[in-house]
Design a protein that fits this description.
It contains 34 helices and 25 strands. By secondary structure, it is an alpha/beta fold. The longest helix is centred in the last third of the chain and has 30 residues.
Length: 903
């Protein structure tokens, strides 16, 4: 296995495909990257901006380039000494449209499709019809308006098209309804086909013959083709006739909001056009991974990143299957969100996570926990929000289960009730009461999911989390009979005997438990990260993927413990700062962290800004939209994302920033689902929010006169935090991952803003100028002093990245095998410093970081000293020896980081 030393994430899409990735390979090599880490590259829905909606696992995405382009990219990577890690998406496929042949086959043939079992479809719940929730309005309205039209394909097949974009194949046994027969024959044939299972094979065989005959006829006989087209137009001319044909199909086309109550296939979260796969089935696994294993065995790729591991029926078995199929060892990490108390499963055959746990840990070090009380009081006074985050998160999860994921909850209720009816001891537990109990349990679940499998084994960690959820659920839903919770607890723990209901199927019970496990993760994601994070705006820097908004900073001891554990158990885990899914860029979070040190000033300023803007808009009473909670979020968003080029001249590039901000505000409002939503947008409220933002950006306004001095200061101090964050990621135990473009400042807003095209030419030119001076140790002190003097252009971050990645390249053993030891600091302001040592017996590296830049600025004579072991310590940044006992303020100067090497 070619283990990575440092990865670099590239977002592949139309406009940045295989050729473009190959073109940046020399730059990545010079930066010090060992592996390019690619987003999905297999065929996806046309125009996909991300590639996670794969439609064919066996084909490369043609929008990224040809097979030759891909081969050339791999060859270029190898020539530059760069490996490749691929993002794999096992949980779901892109459906809808006309791109996925497997899904189209299921739509055409229904339960008889050879692929019907490959997707998580509940045919019974849909009366043997697959829901197709693709319409923008009620079915009847769109049908009468001509938005649904029958079409004849070039291959002689028929399909109903919605808006000319969603293909719904017509079942061949119903072709006679189009070709023309008497009504009695049609009714008899439809009855036999739909209702008599013993007729299906015969009907299907004759239907295939008819389908083949039509295809040949269309190809050879223009007159016949014209006649068929006339029949199609006749059908389209009578919406009642078209409705009759549609009702005979294996699909039910419907308004997209019908999915909330009646979806009968598992989705990725609540996204209708991403259908869940049954990856636990051998044929599905084999088909989805055949091309991946070809790439691994041909050494085209060196590792895999597994997307949304928690969506799978049995994550552990899936990971074992991956390992067993790979001929050679390969790097393997999973996208897994860990709660603060949760540990990564030690029995998973992986190298670690993709780094969301580390991301939030490093952010916590930059936040001053002593400000929590005053910061919370300021938020409550301004916004009027008195609820704590835990309550908001629980309510948001309940809302998701009542609305967007109500159909999944109902399916679980039905499954649990079927299981309960197997025994007289539990037969009186109705679907309704079990559904209420499941809802209460999931709303109070402290982690994404547990991992009981068909073996029935359960870990102590899972027992703890189930017990926690059960205790809270029983209190929360006290009107639900305790026996419902007793039953479900035994199911979730795989301990059916505890109920005394020995008649219950153990395998059936475990399957119910595993389906519930698949449900709790999406509810957590949609209820917490995509709802509560946009409702609880106390400090939006903490509202990050995998984050805990009510954990206001962390103690250094906790960070040391996590780093030491990672060094021991997961030395190859990824360390992320930004991803394609983070809510805001890494440097935006680092800048916002400064607010924790300026709590009193922040409280006064936000109150003043509100008065200025609302008075300007004629809202003297402060009651017009946006509401105070959204307004408070807006000010933080503005501080975090304010572009460097607008610090001096706010009119510079303001149009581009206004457009980016507008999109982020719209998404934030709709995700919060309080004053607007994706399902039911509120244009009046959204326009008020956008008008408020536009007024704030008006050059020369009284608001900007107050805001600009503050944001300039926050940006300057935030840059120090960013460098601390960068050095920490590049030296802590694990594999540092750099998200595309983030070697310069990253002040991105939520996606799609964080997926914008990267200007690599600028970065190549910048690195070409910096790299030679970095290689000369005697030039570094002068170089970094100059770069800190011009910190706004971000070159100091790039130089820091290149320097430390270069050091990792020269000393791979230190980071792959080195231990981790905390550094102690002495002095009145020792908590302003954080540091640790890495050592492998041959070389030691001491990393010293200065925290809390605003506090240090207020106290220029801050006192802290590092207690290092004896030896000659030379700073990589300054090219000179560290003086033992020297005050850090004097040694560090304006650069808040040091990396001291000692042989």
């Amino acid at each position: 296995m070619s283990a990575p030393r440092a990865t670099y994430r590239l977002q592949m899409r139309a406009g940045f495909g295989f050729k473009e990735a190959a073109a940046v390979a020399p730059y990545l090599a010079r930066l010090g990257v060992s592996h390019a880490y690619l987003s999905p590259i297999f065929k996806a829905r046309a125009g996909s901006p991300h590639g996670y909606d794969i439609t064919d696992h066996g084909e490369l995405n043609p929008e990224l380039g040809s097979h030759a382009d891909h081969a050339a990219m791999i060859e270029t990577f190898r020539r530059e000494g760069i490996g490749c890690i691929l993002d794999v998406v096992p949980n779901h496929m892109g459906v809808g449209g006309a791109d996925n042949p497997l899904w189209l086959d299921v739509l055409e043939w229904g339960p008889e499709s050879r692929y019907a079992g490959w997707f998580d479809i509940d045919w019974e719940a849909g009366d043997d019809k697959l829901l197709a929730p693709v319409l923008g309005a009620q079915y009847g309205e769109e049908l009468r308006a001509g938005k649904l039209r029958l079409k004849l394909g070039d291959d002689g097949t028929f399909a109903v098209w919605a808006y000319d974009s969603h293909k719904l194949p017509v079942a061949p046994p119903t072709y006679p309804m189009i070709l023309g027969h008497d009504a009695e024959t049609l009714d008899r044939m439809s009855d036999r086909f739909l209702d008599l299972p013993n007729w299906r094979p015969q009907i299907a065989e004759r239907a295939l013959d008819l389908k083949a005959e039509l295809a040949e006829l269309v190809r050879l006989d223009p007159q016949a083709h014209a006649q068929l087209e006339r029949r199609v137009e006749a059908c389209n001319g009578d919406w009642r006739e078209l409705d009759r044909l549609i009702r005979a199909q294996h699909w039910r086309v419907a308004f997209f909001r019908v999915a909330e109550d009646e979806i009968n296939y598992r989705r990725f979260f609540n996204i209708n056009d991403l259908a869940g796969l049954r990856m636990e089935l051998g044929p599905v696994f084999a088909r989805a991974h055949a091309r991946v294993f070809e790439m691994l065995n041909a050494q085209e790729i060196d590792g895999l990143r597994i997307d949304h591991i928690d969506g799978l029926f049995d994550p552990k078995s899936y990971l074992i299957a991956l390992r067993e199929r790979g001929k050679e060892p390969f790097y393997l990490v999973v996208e897994k969100i860990l709660a603060p108390h949760e540990r990564l499963r030690g029995d998973w055959p992986i190298d670690g996570t993709t780094g969301y746990d580390y991301l939030n840990l490093s952010l916590g070090l930059l936040i001053d926990p002593s400000a929590e009380e005053s910061f919370t009081a300021a938020y409550r006074a301004f916004s009027g929000v008195q609820d704590d985050f835990e309550g908001i998160a629980r309510d948001s999860k309940l809302r998701i289960m009542d609305n967007e994921m109500a159909s999944e909850l109902a399916a679980l209720g039905r499954a649990a009730a079927r299981l309960a009816r197997q025994s007289p001891l539990t037969a009186d537990l109705t679907r309704a009461i079990l559904q209420r109990a499941i809802k209460a349990i999931v709303a109070n679940f402290p982690v994404y999911r547990t991992y009981v499998d068909l073996s029935g084994a359960i870990s102590d960690d899972d027992k703890r989390d189930i017990a926690w959820a059960m205790a809270r659920a029983r209190r929360f839903a006290a009107d639900v009979h305790p026996s419902a919770f007793d039953f479900l607890e035994s199911v979730l723990r795989g301990e059916i005997k505890r109920t005394g209901a020995v008649e219950l199927s153990r395998t059936g019970a475990l399957r119910v438990a595993m389906r519930l496990q698949q449900f709790s993760g999406p509810v957590m994601a949609k209820g917490v990260e995509d709802t509560a994070f946009y409702r609880y705006n106390r400090f939006i820097a903490l509202n990050e993927v995998g984050g805990v908004p009510d954990r206001f900073g962390i103690a250094p001891a906790l960070a040391h413990r996590a780093n030491a554990e990672r060094a021991e158990r997961w030395p190859l885990a990824m360390l992320a700062a930004s991803t394609h899914d983070t809510k805001r860029g890494e440097d935006a979070r680092a800048r916002l962290a400064v607010l924790s040190e300026l709590a009193d000033e922040w409280r006064q300023l936000t109150a003043g800004w509100s008065r200025l803007l609302r008075a300007r808009l004629g809202d003297v009473e402060g009651e017009a939209p946006p509401d105070r909670n959204d307004e408070y979020m807006f000010y933080q968003m503005l501080v975090g994302s304010w572009p460097m080029e607008m610090l001096e001249d706010p009119s510079n590039a303001v149009a581009a920033y206004r457009a980016r901000l507008s999109a982020a505000l719209q998404k934030s409002l709709r995700e919060g689902k309080r004053n607007s939503s994706w399902a039911a947008p509120n244009p009046e409220y959204e326009n008020a929010m956008q008008g408020f933002a536009a007024e704030a950006l008006n050059p020369g306004s009284a608001f900007l006169a107050s805001f600009l001095p503050f944001v300039r200061r926050a940006a300057r101090l935030g840059a120090e935090n960013s460098l601390v964050q960068t050095v920490l990621r590049l030296t802590a135990p694990g594999i540092p991952d750099t998200y595309q473009g983030c070697e310069l400042w990253d002040l991105s807003l939520v996606d799609p803003d964080n997926r914008r095209a990267v200007e690599y030419r600028e970065r190549m030119e910048t690195l070409a100028k910096i790299a030679p001076r970095l290689e000369r140790e005697q030039d570094r002190a002068e170089l970094f002093a100059a770069l800190m003097g011009e910190w706004r252009d971000g070159r100091v971050k790039m130089a820091t990245t290149a320097l430390l990645l270069g050091f990792r390249r020269k000393h791979p053993e230190l980071f792959a095998e080195g231990d981790y030891q905390p550094i102690e600091f002495a002095g009145d302001d020792a908590d302003c410093a954080f540091g640790f040592m890495r050592g492998d017996g041959r070389l030691r590296l001491a990393v010293i970081l200065a925290r809390f830049p605003a506090r240090r600025e207020r106290k220029p004579n801050w006192r802290a000293e590092a207690r290092l072991p004896e030896g000659e310590w030379t700073d990589l940044f300054r090219g000179r020896r560290f003086e033992p006992g020297a005050p850090l303020r004097d040694w560090l100067g304006p650069l808040p980081v040091a990396a001291l090497a000692s042989a």
